[in-house]
What we know:
Elements: E1 3-9, H1 14-30, E2 34-40, H2 46-55, E3 62-66, H3 70-76, H4 83-87, E4 100-103, E5 106-110, E6 113-114, E7 117-122, H5 123-129, H6 137-147, E8 153-156, H7 163-175, H8 185-200, H9 214-222, E9 225-231, H10 235-238, E10 245-249, E11 260-261, E12 264-268, H11 275-284, H12 289-299, E13 302-303, H13 306-309, H14 312-315, H15 318-324, E14 331-332, H16 341-358, H17 363-377
Parallel strand pairs: 1-2, 1-3, 8-9, 11-14
Antiparallel strand pairs: 3-12, 4-5, 6-13, 7-9, 7-10
Helix pairs in contact: 1-12, 7-8, 7-16, 8-16, 8-17, 16-17
Amino acid sequence: MSGTLTVWHYFSVKAQVKELNDFAKLFNKQYPNVKVNYVYVPYDQITNKVIAAANAKSGPDVVVYNGTSIPQFVKSGVLYDMSKFWASYPDKGQFPSSLVKKSAGKVYGVQGYVNLLGLWYNKDILDKAGVKPPRTFDELGAALEKTKSHSEVGLTLTGKPNDQGEWQAYPWLSGYGFSYGKPSAQALKGAFGFIQSWVRKGYVPQEAASWDQTEPFQRFMVGNVAFAENGNWQLGTIKGAKFRYGVVPMPKGPKGGSVYLGGETESIGAFSKNPRLAWEYLKATYLSKEGQIIALKDVGSIPARSDAAKDPAIQNDPILRAFASEVKGGSTYPPAGFGAGIISAELDVAQGWSAVIAGQKSAAAAASSVVSKVRKDLG
């Protein structure tokens, strides 16, 4: 094969750009006569630009984007149906089903790696309090009480009323049995009630209601915070810590719970002139074991493939191992099967989460209001 392959993306960070260049080199080992043309599109513009291009029956061969755009993309007909490619892909069994993006039974994209949440902890503070890293909500609550006299803040997280807030709320909400498929006010009341009780006890700062995902980790890095709910993307930042630290998987609640499997989705554009070549690019880069190790080393993204997750680069690193252990039981992001209404539903949940942290609503009132809105959003 020869020619030019156009890939649209929104990566601007140096490490991410390096990843793209390393992917091009990896692909060119198999297809030296194909030029990979990367086109940067700002994050807040890529959804609209892909849709606009498709309306003109044009657009990229491959698009790398936030999976929250999938409902809009499918509705607008901007993605190529990859079902036949995926069905014949011998390595498809290496991927959790939650990372295969489907609509009406058709495959429109796959995530080659994931970004997800874990519970970071300050080992110096835990050791002083005689506390072991917690594995359940109850253990974390007990740990927060014991570390209270050894830390200024117990737990940092985001309660911002947007997609970041809903992202960090989900492990706690699902831990009480909440799901978008069966939105229960009782489950949501339990989750809202426990987080509100932690705010009242001083474990979680009330101002967390306005924090995004950056602020909680910045505060954790000061060294006076016992725990921080945050992601694997902080691997570079944590290297500057002046204290000992570690990570455990997000604690489980009375009903278990899981974390979202975030990260970019990779798809073929509906109007690609050579979808087969686009598929070959995806196979060689984002979906291959070698490509996923590149993403890990360049950016810190956790491999989606089960064989890549067993690589020594992960298994010999306790922090990476903790994050990788959550992939198998993780949840699809955004929740699948709800159409474009899921965006509004997630926003409603985020607003309720923020309101209870801020003390603006009781857990019961917030849960009742949110579930009513979610059911309306999802029809």
